[in-house]
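Rotation project, supervised by the postdoc (A.L.). Task for the rotation student: set up a whole-complex structure prediction and record inputs and outputs verbatim in this book. Inputs entered:
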Amino acid sequence: MAAAARTPEGPEPEVLAAFEAAKGFMPRHEGLALYAAAREAAGLGLPLLEIGTYCGRSTLLLADAARAGGVSVITVDHHRGSEEQQPGWDYHDPDTVDPEVGRMDTLPAFRRTLHRAGLEEHVIAVVGRSPQVARLWNGPLGLVFIDGGHTDEHATADYEGWAPHVAESGLLVIHDVFPDPVDEWTGQAPYRVYLRALESGEFTEVSVTDSLRVLRRTGVAGSGRG
Ligand SMILES: C[S@@+](CC[C@H](N)C(=O)[O-])C[C@H]1O[C@@H](n2cnc3c(N)ncnc32)[C@H](O)[C@@H]1O
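Outputs recorded:
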């Protein structure tokens, strides 16, 4: 049988299959929108940065786009899970708990996911807390993808720590943006961060795919109200 053809704008078919097989929460149509944004942003020749690796589902698509564009992905996570992923919560997966330590550890699953897809060399994984890592970072980024903690404390810290590093014409992508509280499942902090980015005057909306929002830097960092 002939190999599945790659659509001109889409990820490699085997990467898309790996994405769909990986543990995680992002549906396919949002993944394709993330991939399209990452492909475009990789054209700037700058790294792509993700906050919230979990088991690598979205990282696969970023890595495929980075490979195509000749750049790297940096993905940041402490790998101990967000609030809603802890035992007793709806999004808890008992398989992610390290029985020796008694806490979640998604790093092994992430590494297996990336290895199986042959994408390890395109990704730099940083194990740590997003604000702590952000304080050490001082270079421009082609894309920042915020998909970390969903409390106001975490989403705000992710925005404040990383959005200033989005280069001119670079993209800020925010996941789990729910304008209607009826749709919320982990709160509206990402929505509040999204509004803040728009109100800052530094970012302009490019696309909306369900809860995935893509914004472009069209203003200078620090010039707005945000
Ligand atoms: C919704 S999951 C990410 C899902 C992933 N992007 C995917 O598509 O499968 C959120 C992740 O953010 C991580 N996280 C939450 N708060 C964090 C923080 N302050 N610093 C680093 N990682 C954090 C959690 O450990 C969790 O793995």
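Student's summary: Strands lie at 48-51, 73-77, 97-98, 103-104, 123-127, 141-146, 166-174, 203-209, 212-217.
Supervisor addendum: The first strand starts at residue 48 and ends at 51.
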